[in-house]
Write a structure and sequence with these properties.
- The structure is a single chain.
- This protein has 223 residues and is α/β, with parallel strands linked by helices.
- It has a five-stranded parallel beta sheet with strand order 2-1-3-7-8, with helices on both faces.
- Helix 1 crosses helix 5.
- The protein is globular.
Length: 223
């Protein structure tokens, strides 16, 4: 059975929903679903996980990959201070905020991460200092470089079924000319993605929103 791999942030994760749009879409296409969306996840994590899955032959060029990029100023760091994987709030244990790695954990940074209770005091202090070292222009330059390198890598590996999803105005992609020729028709925009949102949270979809997004992506894929 072919796979559907979804890479994204909390928008595509089990954020107070029982089924993600990717899980629904995989069932519609009768594909095996590989979930790599992560609360507080970064674009860097998406590139890392995609490379690892391809390098270990878990994902092949016969499979379908959908990338839902997130905001620019996010990162992931290895930490020696975590001793357990912390579940994403509202995910019913289906997703974690940290990943076990070697003798520590990979933690995820976003703006104001030092205020979240998912991190130890030493991690919070590190994140507070790291915030002072950020520059939006530099982050955009880094993203443009990595986005183009990622497309080149995927093209060289023969991945034709690579799609990029933008939900409403979230994330950085917005122009077709930001894509290599092979992927220019693989840009999916869901401008109304957050019309069906969680109570008191207009940045994450409720269950109906996930269903509608799955239906939209189903119409856009050419597989």
């Amino acid at each position: 059975m072919k796979n559907l791999l979804v890479l994204g942030c909390s928008i595509s994760d089990y954020t107070h929903v029982d089924r993600t749009w990717g899980e629904i879409l995989a069932k519609q296409y009768n594909l095996n679903y590989i979930h790599e969306a992560a609360g507080c996840g970064s674009n860097w994590r998406m590139w890392r996980r995609a490379f690892d899955l391809i390098d270990n032959n878990i994902i092949t060029k016969q499979d379908v990959i959908v990338v839902q990029y997130t905001e620019l100023i996010r990162r992931e760091f290895w930490s020696p201070y975590q001793n357990e994987s912390r579940p994403l709030h509202g995910s019913n244990g289906k997703s974690n905020m940290t990943e076990a790695y070697d003798d520590g954990h990979i933690t995820r940074y976003k703006i104001d991460a030092e205020q979240l209770g998912d991190y130890t005091k030493k991690e919070q202090a590190f994140f507070k200092s790291y915030t002072r070292m950020l520059n939006p222009k530099f982050e955009l330059e880094s993203f443009r470089m990595m986005h183009n390198m990622f497309q080149g890598y995927m093209s060289d590996k023969g991945f034709a079924n690579l799609y990029f999803l933008k939900c409403a105005d979230f994330g950085v992609l917005y122009e077709y000319n930001k894509f290599h020729k092979i992927y220019q028709n693989n840009y999916i925009h869901a401008p109304d993605a957050f019309d069906n949102h969680l109570p008191n949270d207009q940045g994450h979809m409720n269950q109906q929103g996930h269903q509608l997004l799955a239906d939209l992506v189903y119409q856009k894929l050419s597989i």
